[in-house]
Design goal:
Elements: H1 2-15, H2 20-39, H3 49-61, H4 66-85, H5 112-120, H6 127-142, H7 146-150, E1 157-158, E2 163-167, E3 173-177, H8 180-197, H9 217-229, H10 237-250, H11 255-262, H12 267-270, H13 272-288
Antiparallel strand pairs: 1-2, 2-3
Length: 292
């Protein structure tokens, strides 16, 4: 069993190019599945639809969310496909497994006034204060994921074109425009904040933590919460991404452009923002139209 899991981990990261986050999640699901097999006195070669459904049924009985079950189905599909390719399974049961329908909730979105108030508030001129402003401005201006932001290097900023080069999910690269306020915040960081924190080990990282290493995702999230709480808002980095996409659509951007902006592989992932915009339009209509 351990050989199968180790080979599967290499397959996920090396051949399929899955992110570290996805690999960790799939391997955690795999450990649960292998533990279930051991309890049942079964081997990996015994995997079939009834066995997997039994494991998933226990997951549901333990109170797992739909999203957890859906991820486990995706993980076991990838695993059984790998085992079938390796000759461990005579047939792949994965295609016969169905995932629960996801209930898509509308994302949290700041309105334009809230975003303006949060981004225009004065900040302290300490290196951390300057970094916090740069982090929030860049997340809202570019709509990048917080992990993508933390992975940026100095060379990824193109001031001649006012863009940044982002390496997204699946190692897909995209170029994203950056607005003037975010560039100003970035200039302040590069002029005063980064030099104060930089050490020999900082390398080419654009954003740095307090000890000079590359800024990590947890600290970037804390930067966002700290900056926004000062204006009475409780929002996360992904809420800034949602807000950027929604405000672009509200401003007249087409869905395809927003898809490219966000780095979505499918337009289906971007369409949720049209629902957010439609809801806002209905609210405005009810408030403003005399015969609403």
């Amino acid at each position: 069993m351990s050989d199968s899991s180790e080979g599967f981990a290499v397959h996920l990261s090396g051949e399929l190019g899955r992110s570290q986050h996805t690999v960790r999640g799939y391997l955690a699901d795999l450990r649960s599945l292998l533990g279930y097999l051991e309890e049942q006195g079964l081997e990996v070669a015994d995997l079939d639809v009834p066995v997997v459904r039994g494991w998933l049924s226990r997951t549901r009985d333990e109170g797992a969310e739909r999203s957890t079950i859906a991820r486990r189905v995706a993980a076991v599909r990838a695993f059984t496909r790998y085992l079938h390719r390796e000759g461990v399974l005579a047939a792949d049961p994965g295609p016969r497994l169905s995932a629960p329908t996801q209930r898509r909730t509308l994302p949290t979105v700041l309105d334009e006034g809230q975003a303006e108030a949060a981004l225009s508030r004065p900040v302290d001129d300490t290196p951390v204060g300057v970094r916090r402003r740069a982090v929030v401005e860049l997340l809202y201006a570019t709509g990048v994921r917080v992990a993508e932001l933390c992975a940026l290097d100095l060379a990824d900023v193109d001031r001649a074109r006012n863009t940044i080069r982002v390496l997204g999910k699946g190692d897909k690269e995209r170029t994203v425009p950056v607005g003037a306020p975010a560039l100003d915040a970035l200039d302040d960081w590069l002029a005063t904040g980064r030099p104060a924190l930089a050490v020999r080990a900082s390398g080419t990282a654009l954003l740095l933590g307090a000890r000079g290493g590359r800024l990590n995702v947890r600290r970037a999230r804390e930067d966002v919460h700290a900056h926004l709480r000062a204006t009475g808002l409780d929002a996360a980095p992904h809420d800034l991404r949602h807000s950027a996409a929604t405000h672009l659509l509200n401003g007249g951007a087409d869905l395809r452009s927003v898809q490219e902006f966000l780095g979505h592989a499918s337009p289906r992932s971007t369409q949720i923002y049209t629902h957010v915009s439609a809801d806002r339009l209905r609210d405005v209509y009810r408030r403003a139209h005399p015969r609403a």
